[in-house]
């Protein structure tokens, strides 16, 4: 497996040292470790045991501890907490953290033995088993990840050229649906193709990225949340939203998935077209961020007519910060400086009392937005925000 974080640390060290005068990465990593231990205390029974099948998901306004959901293929966030524990273990080498990471990761092992529920299988496995494999080289973790990559590939439709995101919503959308979030899941296929899996898995991932690049974006580089394709002949029908403000709006987290996703695709392919596109989707995000936000954390949707009265989405800032600390390694010197500075500015704002949970609850961050149109997880602490925040800090270390 590629040792991404150490490589990125080496690539960014000279620039980040001069740009983090008002942001101590060490201090923020220590803060995250404190919060992790507070959370584990809340999750532990009086006899010291954990309910490993119950994975943290969110903390709503006025609450102090994680609301947990049963680890399942239907719960797409189940892998983020194990991933947080593995990253924290990588920093602290605390054996208690490792044991907890092992327990929460193993609760997802069943995924290797059942059909794909939807595209989120990548989120579930990348953030748990691959993070665990990175830390331990446990062959068990590798084999589960390889099996799940094969399962994810069963959702690929060669006529369309993408992985079906939501099998349960084909009738709702009137065709094969692919959501921007799916770009993140391609990493499982790329990784598997380089670690004993079939070369076909990489071919699927590349084809998905190509098709998405052609149909899922507007001329300026902003993305739709959902692309709908004809199930029979594969032609693109329309782009719509599911979690954004409108079909034509820039849903911040959707754009963050595009930035992270195409940066990752370039890492595995080294094809210039994907690097160029990663920069295009990044540049429109940074432009719109400057136009719509009063800091480096975006509104949940940059076209919400309420403007600064609309909720923020710290999770999108975390995803973009992490992506830019990789993307800065691949681009020219001018762009390197722009992306690196932007990422550090994002982390700096996220690390202030305005966004950090601190004594309010056991999460790292507040003010994320999950599914605004459904009225779900608005202005909340959400587990994936914490995951990408910690990942970004490690990449900036």
Summarize the topology:
Blueprint: H1 4-19, H2 25-43, E1 54-59, E2 67-70, H3 80-92, H4 95-106, H5 121-136, H6 139-153, E3 156-157, E4 162-163, H7 170-173, E5 176-179, H8 182-194, H9 200-215, E6 226-229, E7 236-240, H10 252-269, H11 272-292, H12 314-327, H13 333-350, E8 368-371, E9 376-382, H14 383-396
Antiparallel strand pairs: 1-2, 1-9, 3-4, 5-6, 6-7, 8-9
What this model shows, in words?
The chain has 14 helices and nine strands. It has 397 residues and is an alpha+beta fold. The strands form three sheets. The protein has a four-stranded antiparallel beta sheet with strand order 2-1-9-8. Strand 6 and strand 7 form a beta hairpin. Helix 1 packs across helix 13 and helix 3 packs antiparallel against helix 4.
**Neighbour order of strands in the largest sheet:** 2-1-9-8
Q: Helix segment count?
A: 14
Q: Let me know the largest β-sheet.
A: 4 strands, antiparallel
Low-confidence stretches at least 5 residues in length (pLDDT < 50)?
1-19
| Helicity level | 40-55%
The proportion of strand residues reads: 5-15%
Count the beta strands. 9
User: What structural category do the secondary elements indicate?
Assistant: alpha+beta
Distance between the termini: 20 Å
Mean pLDDT: 95
Form type: globular
Q: What's the gyration radius in Å?
A: 19 Å
The helix/strand series, from N terminus to C terminus, equals: HHEEHHHHEEHEHHEEHHHHEEH
List the main descriptive attributes of the protein structure presented here.
53% helix; globular; 397 residues; disordered N terminus; alpha+beta
Provide a short characterization of the protein structure.
Helices cover 53% and strands 10% of the residues. The chain has helices at residues 4-19, 25-43, 80-92, 95-106, 121-136, 139-153, 170-173, 182-194, 200-215, 252-269, 272-292, 314-327, 333-350, 383-396; strands at residues 54-59, 67-70, 156-157, 162-163, 176-179, 226-229, 236-240, 368-371, 376-382. The protein is globular and about 60 Å long.
């Amino acid at each position: 497996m590629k040792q991404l974080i150490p490589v990125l640390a080496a690539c960014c060290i000279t620039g980040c040292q001069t740009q983090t005068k008002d942001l101590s990465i060490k201090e923020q990593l220590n803060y995250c470790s404190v919060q992790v231990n507070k959370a584990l205390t809340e999750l532990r029974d009086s006899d010291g045991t954990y309910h490993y099948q119950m994975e943290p998901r969110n903390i709503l306004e006025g609450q102090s501890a994680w609301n947990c959901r049963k680890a399942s293929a239907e719960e797409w966030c189940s892998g983020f907490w194990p991933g947080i524990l593995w990253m924290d273990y990588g920093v602290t080498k605390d054996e208690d953290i490792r044991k907890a990471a092992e327990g929460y990761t193993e609760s997802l092992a069943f995924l290797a033995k059942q059909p794909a529920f939807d595209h989120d299988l990548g989120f579930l496995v990348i953030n748990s088993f691959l993070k665990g494999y990175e830390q331990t080289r446990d062959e068990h973790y590798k084999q589960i990840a390889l099996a799940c990559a094969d399962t994810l590939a069963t959702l690929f439709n060669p006529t369309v050229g993408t992985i079906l995101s939501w099998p349960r919503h084909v009738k709702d959308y009137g065709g094969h649906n692919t959501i921007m979030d799916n770009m993140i899941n391609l990493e499982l296929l790329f990784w598997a193709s380089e670690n004993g899996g079939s070369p076909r898995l990489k071919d699927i991932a590349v084809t998905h990225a190509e098709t998405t690049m052609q149909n899922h974006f507007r001329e300026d580089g902003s993305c739709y949340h959902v692309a709908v394709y004809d199930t029979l002949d594969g032609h693109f029908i329309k782009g719509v939203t599911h979690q954004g403000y409108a079909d034509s709006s820039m849903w911040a987290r959707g754009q963050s998935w595009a930035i992270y996703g195409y940066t990752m695709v370039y890492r595995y392919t080294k094809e210039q077209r994907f690097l160029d596109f990663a920069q295009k989707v990044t540049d429109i995000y940074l432009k719109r961020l400057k136009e719509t936000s009063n800091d480096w954390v975006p509104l949940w949707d940059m076209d919400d007519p309420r403007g600064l009265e609309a909720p923020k989405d710290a999770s999108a800032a975390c995803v973009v910060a992490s992506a830019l600390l990789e993307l800065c390694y691949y681009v020219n010197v001018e762009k390197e400086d722009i992306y690196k500075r932007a990422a550090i500015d994002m982390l700096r704002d996220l690390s202030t009392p305005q966004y950090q949970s601190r004594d309010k609850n056991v999460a790292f961050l507040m003010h994320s937005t999950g599914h605004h149109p459904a009225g779900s997880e608005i202005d909340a602490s959400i587990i994936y925000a914490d995951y990408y925040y910690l990942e970004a800090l490690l990449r900036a270390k």
